[in-house]
Amino acid sequence: MKLTILVVEDSPSLVRTYQAHLSSKPYNVLTATTGSEARKILETENIDCVLLDLKLPDADGMDLLSEIQGKADAPIVIVVTANASIGVAVEAVRKGAFDFLVKPISADRLTTTISNGLEQRVLRTRLETLERRETRAEFQGIIGRSPAMRAVYSTIESAAASRASVFITGESGTGKELAARAMHETSNRKNARFVAINCGAIPKDLIESEIFGHVKGAFTGATSERFGAAHLADGGTLFLDELTEMDIELQSTLLRFIQEGVYLKVGGSTLEKVDIRFIAATNRDPLASIREGRLREDLYYRLHVVPLEMPPLRSRGDDILLLAKSFLLSLSKEEGKAFEGFSPDVEQVLQTYPWPGNVRQLHNVIRNVVILNTGTQVESSMLPKLEVVRSIDRSGISSVASDPGDTRPKGGAHSQKEVQPLWMVERDAIESAIELCNGNISKAAQLLEINASTVYRKRQAWLSSDTKASDD
Question: Model-level pTM greater than 0.85?
């Protein structure tokens, strides 16, 4: 891409001379003979360098120099004058000029000065970009500036322009869908649709129709033709959340779709071709899911081109308070409250609690505080009890999230005889949560950070297993 030079000079002969000097260089040269012309060009064009004569018929060059330096991403300015006064040169440099040239100017001096100035501008731009990346607290709606989140932002920016598939891992509530959406919005597909499918929330017999659509009469209840996510995401991004919850047989159909880019509607006979960027996510260990038969190995490696790990909130340091403050201000505005910050005691609690539900849990806690209380500062008495709920982490080991004030010993005191099979630990965790929630399955599922449909499905499977065992 050619860099653009704006020559601001009222002498036609000098304009032609400068154009001749620059003709052998890879520049796009624009010209203006007055200050008003220069201003119009600077408003409408992306200018990299301005060659500015100080004596213009309708403007003072020094004033125009100050205007240019006040712009965001200002071009470099090289001042040109017939006046060789040291005072004029010092003033020009003080106002931001890169260099000061006295007429007449040789071709070598002109091209060398412009080249040096453009090189400095490139370096300045890179440095400013790096500084912004190191200090930014928000990226495409994702809040955080910890090293772990800066690494996430860097991966998203690097992979956004590619068509390569992305595989996002991380605990529930860490923001996997936000990351997928950020990658879409940063890519050249942002003007097309971002379509998200939760593979764990859709019943087995409906998910194929959700992805591929169906024709009228394809199955009982298919009273009209329906477009699926594949059609809607054409030209854009299809996000497959909770991929490891998808039926293993359907995964082979999905693999062919990803490889070939064509699909059949359920009950249809015509192949349809689409251009889609695939992003998948799971809160499980994908390799463990392969060993357990939950995830096809070939599908995993087809999607696992660009890996992205979303860090748990407990590992993000000061991001906890940054997120909490952001949530507090936005929710206070939404609810018509006046909260502005947290007491030191509350900040201590927020930073020391392990947040097993991650960002989602933190958001829910702040919402609870805002809805049920009034004031300008959140006090420790306003915090809800941070519930003790046994959960299953991604490695399959049971863990306990407790109140920060809980000093009871945890772990290390159990014998091998007390270790239970994983399915029993999972069942115990789910049933305990339901009991704590007085039978409210939706609330229990929310606390466990899983879908309610998953709870219903597992309980049905356990009931069938118990019935079969009693019959035997």
Answer: no
